[in-house]
């Protein structure tokens, strides 16, 4: 059997064939999707008042109009475009539609990655970074060349225009996600590309030149969060989780195999005393390589530890927290750079519980609350896990309060069970793709004054919620007479932001959604960052660790 990247390229499917695939068997299946989106938004969506005010949208009415006017969308493609436009208009990756089969089985990609950097005058440039080892692009279209135009459109204009159609909570998040979507798209979450080929203008060795590249499509979805795994402590952008996996398969196929081996060892050994033996064999790697990596960095300001948290997608939160503790104790105590750029979230307690390692202050996890409706009140009565919110939801329906009382998803005793283990200075590096559970982590880092926040964007992803799956709501309400919640057809799925988070400390009560955490030090990527492993960014972080500015 070939490598992961060879398999990707051997499974190519014509894009035009994907576009012609039928999705719905009847008009009723379309109406079902739109009606269930209406139920989620009207009865459960915690950010509905905020989005209506911040964005000037009326999503519940849009869902009703989509049902009433379904005949205006006679083909499957146009209907799905309208439904996706409704959900992306919320600027909220917690509240989205997963497309039904067969589209949900496909991934479209180009075999290279684009990176943005800024010159001395502040103008953006776009370089080819990683190129898949399985790709044969020919000519001098290689890592390091600068792409100037995309289908004849200047790159900076293309990214901004595409950004206006994405779901990021702020302008910079939308532009970052637009840049991602130029080369990789998971069709479970969006429509296929409009074009079969892309024409790129770039600066080659002999000057400006062009290349024509076809979109590649493969069948079989990437592993992701199951709709059945719907704990209220989950906060993530699932699309980005799957993009992380795709990029590893495209650009680091050997890493995928290594991660699989370590994960198998971890699962075999974690319940037994051999866990400590396994730890001792991993002095340069992590027990959770899909989520954690670390190293020592040398900068002009000194030698520091570096911890990259790619995601918080872990089922064993205790094991993850213990692994972070092990790594932090191994790294130099002269200063630590924590990097959560591109981290789409995962288990909220995984992030909040590691904050204690870096401060002597008592950690106060972020409280979360539900919107007060008859339906959230009934949901709170479906299990003891909802008991803290139940009294205020009952009162809220009577008094007209918008939200219930807030309670943390991370138990306070767990957030403080170990205490500070790292005594050196700490900086946190983030970007506009740092989202959801990562927003909880970043806000906690700021609210407890742990260190400076270095942002390659002026805002974080601003995803301030814990999400819940439609399928889980259907299950919770299966014995409620007259329930408006119905199972979806053909493998479609939906999720909704159910609990909103608010800040603690001096920012107490302010929402995270749409705002994120404020950046202390703004940084823009350089050409050397793109070509040489973020060398200038690490040097800047080292300066901050030493001088605090």
TrEMBL record:
What Pfam families does UniProt report for this protein, alphabetically?
Peptidase_S41 (PF03572)
Report which residue ranges the record marks as coiled coil.
none
For this protein, the record's InterPro entries field holds: ClpP/crotonase-like_dom_sf, Tail-specific_protease
Q: Where is the Tail specific protease domain?
A: 304-465
In terms of domain of life, where is this protein from?
Bacteria
UniProt protein name:
S41 family peptidase
Q: What is the lineage of its organism?
A: Bacteria, Pseudomonadati, Myxococcota, Myxococcia, Myxococcales
